[in-house]
Amino acid sequence: MRVAIAGAGAVGRSIAGELLENGHEVLLIDKAPTAISVERVPQAEWLLADACEITSLDEAALQRCNVVIAATGDDKVNLVVSLLAKTEYGVPRVVARVNNPKNEWLFNESWGVDVAVSTPRLMSALVEEAVSVGDLVRLLRFSHGDANLVELTLPEESALAGTQVGDVQWPQDTSLVTIIRGTRVLTPTREDSLEAGDELLFVAAQAREEQLEDLLSVRRES
């Protein structure tokens, strides 16, 4: 897979290193000469250019990329890069970094963004996830389909504790994708039982989140 990353700062370089370790081709793009540190990620391709300019993206051969990641520290730049990648070059997957949570509403399919990653929101979500039981925590937003990756730790008093996955009437537009039980990561089957303390990860439509939380947190009758 070929991936272009706009923004060769600490975030961009870190992403590049991870992708290279997983065997992908990576191109780092940045207009600041001081950001071009080939020795830090020597396996990557580097391009000194403005990722908001069509001529630069032509030089980067963006049409050959499977994924573009807009990872600069400027939300305006990330939006422009995302829009150009999607509309001018037809890049299948565009991931954009959101620096200011107030701008998060802009990072959607109308700007070419498939997945928006808000670092402040993600950090707060991880804090909530670590301390919350029975509360739905939104971890990641997917622009297409208005869906989110959400997590809930099943409380002791939940009526669903001990229930098989296949016996639960999940809300529409909701999919249980993973059960984390202690150190184990389970791909749920219909026969798996839910246990108190399970961390449940769902992909769910935003409109169904409240319904999902109510279902999982409902208390047993005493």
TrEMBL record:
Entry keyword set: Ion transport, NAD, Potassium, Potassium transport, Transport
Domain RCK N-terminal: 1-117
KW NAD (keyword) present: yes
Domain RCK C-terminal: 137-218
InterPro entries linked: K_uptake_TrkA (IPR006036), NAD(P)-bd_dom_sf (IPR036291), RCK_C (IPR006037), RCK_C_sf (IPR036721), RCK_N (IPR003148), Trk_Ktr_HKT_K-transport (IPR050721)
Superkingdom classification of source: Bacteria
PANTHER family membership: POTASSIUM CHANNEL PROTEIN 2-RELATED-RELATED, TRK SYSTEM POTASSIUM UPTAKE PROTEIN TRKA
Protein name: Trk system potassium uptake protein TrkA
UniProt organism field: Streptomyces pimonensis
